[in-house]
Specification:
With 231 residues, this protein is α/β, with parallel strands linked by helices. The chain has 9 helices and 8 strands. Bound molecules: pyridoxal-5'-phosphate.
Length: 231
């Protein structure tokens, strides 16, 4: 299937899952994960209306930035503190804050440029060793620390759920994320508003939306299997 056909199919599924959870299509952001995808193919997705793009590596955002005017970039992969400076003024949202050290670096760089950086805190909801993210029980404490910074706004939570053959297996994790999202939202911390819950990928986005996600990050479903060799 072509990129536009893929998107049409995903759009329908997002709408169905949104309605199932008492929401509408417009309440969900479909983030096109464009890592390893070349700009000519990304442009096809942008022409279908997908202008929010997710990348894992800061250097890939930097490389594609000038070639894709109008794109809204999201840093979704693990971010090393020494890379913050390359993207701080280029991204709309950083999904992957998982330490105070990274929060401090974002604060420092944003302050220097006079901006406010919007971030999500990444939670390792299933406690997988291979995954980044803060432990669920440490999430609130990290957010409390970051809330003291003047140039960082915590806008929500993100998780990468386990890769499982049956997406239903992740429903419990998505439900746990939604509960934390709601609970923290009621704490009234400064500089914290729980607006975005980023969870769900090609394999499990419908279940994620049913459980309350309002950003889904989809790569393979839009662009097909990734070819890491060309990078
Ligand atoms: C690659 C990636 C995705 C997209 O994964 P697909 O299964 O291709 O949809 C989403 N989120 C993160 C953090 C990723 O690294």
């Amino acid at each position: 299937m072509s990129i536009s056909e893929n998107i049409k199919d995903i759009e329908e599924k997002i709408e169905r899952a949104a309605i199932k959870s008492g929401r509408q299509r417009k309440d969900i952001l479909l983030l096109a994960v464009s890592k390893t995808v070349e700009c000519d193919r990304i442009k096809q997705a942008m022409e279908c209306g997908l202008t929010s793009l997710g990348e894992n590596k800061p250097q890939e955002i930097v490389r594609k930035y000038d070639e894709l005017p109008g794109a809204k970039w999201h840093q979704i992969g693990h971010l090393q503190t020494n890379k913050v400076k390359y993207i701080i003024d280029k991204v709309e949202l950083i999904h992957s804050v998982d330490s105070l050290k990274l929060g401090e670096e974002i604060e420092k760089r944003a302050a220097k440029l006079g901006l406010r950086a919007d971030v999500l805190v990444e939670v390792n909801i299933a406690g997988e060793e291979s995954k980044h993210g803060v432990k669920p029980e440490e999430t609130r404490a990290l957010i409390e620390e970051i809330s003291k910074f003047d140039h960082v706004r915590v806008r929500g939570l993100m998780t990468v759920a386990p890769f499982v053959p049956d997406p239903e297996e992740n429903r419990k994790y998505f439900g746990q994320m939604y509960k934390m999202f709601k609970d923290i939202g009621q704490c009234g911390y400064d500089n914290v508003s729980m607006d975005f819950l980023s969870m769900g990928m090609t394999n499990d986005y419908e279940v994620a939306i049913e459980e309350g996600a309002n950003i889904v990050r989809i790569g393979t479903g839009i662009f097909g299997a990734r070819n890491y060799d060309i990078k």
